[in-house]
Design goal:
alpha/beta, Rossmann fold, 3 domains, 5-stranded parallel beta sheet, 13 helices, 42% helix
């Protein structure tokens, strides 16, 4: 039996790449042949093809200069080159660690031919079911009726949707043999609309233990004898930076940041940290989180890996606008499920409550162990049921 996974991992995002790696790894550990479909999503009927590097660089630099109202072109070219170098580490990680389909698929046009190569299809995790960017390929609409079809921990951070969205997703979900979501909001909505049981699964990155992730990481020589605070911000805000400065004053530890993770150059991100690292791919990020004394992040997967490596951390609210704010649910749900709901910072005053509350990882690790076992068993049972049908 051969399994094809379709998920999001082509966006130079640490979490997206590492969750794709984790899901494939855990399936391969079950002695099943597995590949990830090399797919570039379709948005509003248009395939999101990668642009030539030069064109992409020009667009990113123009957007950055417009955003910052600056005219110093050389500084933007300098830092765009650093971003490009970091992106190459992502490309290398994918090439060396993720088994991909032989063909590259841009949009839906040729996806149906995958039925010739795979017996079972899994719609993978991350935000594949984001209602603002729906792509029917992530609901396996291209898969033949006689093929196995399931989702694993599909990101669905909303518990309500308008009639257009419901009418779009309902028939697609009805075709799946097994459904699992990452958030209880998605579970609740689907069960309400379809009357089907939905399994609440953990993010694929949590399927692997700290020891397993340690085998993946790559070390960096930091020369930080007194330890460090790691800042892993996708979209840094004033609240985030002010809080980090406060933590630095109180602890006396150096601050390490990874600038411009949102692919937009903002020179203000360079001002608050003692050490700014660009040559950090997925492997290096794992090392940085595992060895940090404290992690400040606005990232879901930054939070996940802080937990996996038993780090003390603070999680900042990134999404404020109504259209994206439901994405906060995934972090809230994770922290509630692990019984550490008080790690959220919404204002600089919130750091005090985190400072006085040390995470008891004996309890957290017990929770992780339990839900990890449940999710692996669910995945195994689904795969076994498909094998039994052959």
């Amino acid at each position: 039996m051969r399994i094809g996974i379709i998920t999001l991992y082509h966006n130079y995002n640490y979490g997206a790449v590492l969750q794709a790696y984790a899901l494939q790894s855990i399936i391969k550990s079950m002695q099943v042949s597995c590949e990830t479909v090399n797919y570039y999503r379709e948005i509003n009927g248009v395939a999101k093809k990668p642009r030539p590097k030069f064109v992409d660089d020009v667009i990113n630099i123009f957007r950055s200069m417009t955003y910052n109202k600056a005219i110093d072109l050389p500084i933007y070219i300098k830092y765009q080159n650093k971003i490009d170098n970091r992106n190459r580490l992502f490309d290398s990680f994918i090439k060396n660690n993720i088994s991909e389909s032989k063909e590259v698929y841009y949009g839906h046009e040729k996806l149906h031919e995958l039925n010739n190569y795979y017996d079972v299809f899994i719609a993978g995790s991350d935000n594949i079911w984001n209602k603002n960017l729906l792509d029917s390929a992530f609901f396996l609409d291209f898969v033949d009726d006689n093929k196995g079809k399931m989702s694993y921990a599909a990101g669905m951070s909303y518990d309500s949707a308008d009639e257009n969205i419901i009418s779009f997703i309902s028939p697609l979900l009805n075709r799946l043999d097994y459904i699992s979501t990452r958030e209880p909001t998605g579970k609740s909505l689907i069960e309400k609309v379809l009357g089907k049981d939905v399994f609440l699964a953990i993010d694929p990155t949590l399927l692997l233990s700290a020891d397993e992730w340690k085998l993946v990481e790559r070390s960096i020589d930091l020369e930080c004898d007194k330890g460090y605070i790691l800042c892993f911000f996708i979209e840094p805000s004033d609240t985030m930076i002010q809080t980090v400065i406060q933590i630095k004053k109180e602890t006396g530890k150096r601050v390490i940041c990874l600038p411009f993770l949102h692919q937009r150059i903002n020179p203000h991100e360079l001002e608050y940290a003692d050490l700014r690292l660009f040559n950090v791919g997925p492997e290096e990020l794992l090392f940085l989180i595992r060895n940090a004394d404290f992690v400040c992040t606005d990232s879901f997967h930054g939070t996940v890996f802080s937990v996996i490596f038993n780090r003390q951390f603070a999680c900042f609210r990134r999404f404020q606008d109504e259209k994206r704010s439901t994405l906060n649910f995934r972090i809230d749900h994770l922290l509630n499920r692990l019984d550490i709901p008080n790690r959220i910072i919404e204002s600089t005053d919130d750091y005090n409550k985190i400072q006085s509350s040390i995470i008891d990882y004996d309890v957290v690790n017990q929770n992780i162990g339990r839900i990890r076992t449940e999710s692996i068993q669910f995945l195994y049972n689904c795969i076994k049921s498909f094998m039994d049908k052959d």
